[in-house]
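Case study 2.
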Amino acid sequence: MELLMRNMFQSLGKNTSANKLAKKYGLRFGAGRFVAGETIKTAIEAVRKLNSEGKVVTLDHLGEFVYTEEEAQESTAMCIQTLDAIAEAGVKSNLSLKMTSLGLDISREVCMRNMRKILDRAKLHQNFVRIDMEDYEHCQITLDIFRELRQEYDNVGVVIQAYLYRTEQDIADLNLQKANLRLVKGAYKESPSVAFPEKKDVDDNFKKIIKQHLLNGNYTAVATHDETMVEYTKSVVSEYQIPKEQFEFQMLYGICEDIQDKLVKEGFKVRVYVPYGVDWFGYFMRRLAERPANVWFVLKNLLK
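Prediction:
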């Protein structure tokens, strides 16, 4: 049953008709728990609150299904506005983005041009940009672009997914760039030909790459709500005396806030991934697919 629900929500997340319908009716039925509104103003307010709780943030202006250069330019402009708003407000937040929203599916050239605009603005504000990893189809080109950008910029990082077979080798290769990586389990539906189908194998690989990247000496963002993985990370940094300046924990806005607060009290750096914008549907569906508890939260809102 759980697998059936996961597949259903993952499929819905890629459905353009469902996405248009969601935009029409706005952030209802519980999506507001996971998305900080549709405007920069509401996003900055969310960042301020999280900063007051001792947490730092990465803001993500949500955008998917971008197929024209005009749409890609609009998304790029929103990323730049987000960086400007962060600087103006004086809040502690980086920027996360998806390169498909910047024209990756149109052409590499369009995407590179937009990425450079964003990274130049981030550099001006002394800020950092994280490239989110998307589905397997975009994995290789995402890493290729990251490597090229890394030669020009020191304020860019990327995401690596533990459920892919290729990940251990990718991290070994990225060590040459001293890459700043966010390590995640992975949230897209992938074929068993490219990704571990069993949760235990994903968990084992996640532990392996956490240790691998930390011992490489590169900055590591461990993005997880799994307390087992949190405790494992603590054990590795304790055993190998990894300085707290070399890593952070990352969690999603609206999820496991008790764990976030506990980590802050223990003196660990916690960064909350805060998405906002009108194009929130695909992100919301992936959150429902990941955690059955999120589905029940939405159903309770529907009943209300």
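Confidence is low (pLDDT under 50) at residues 296-304.
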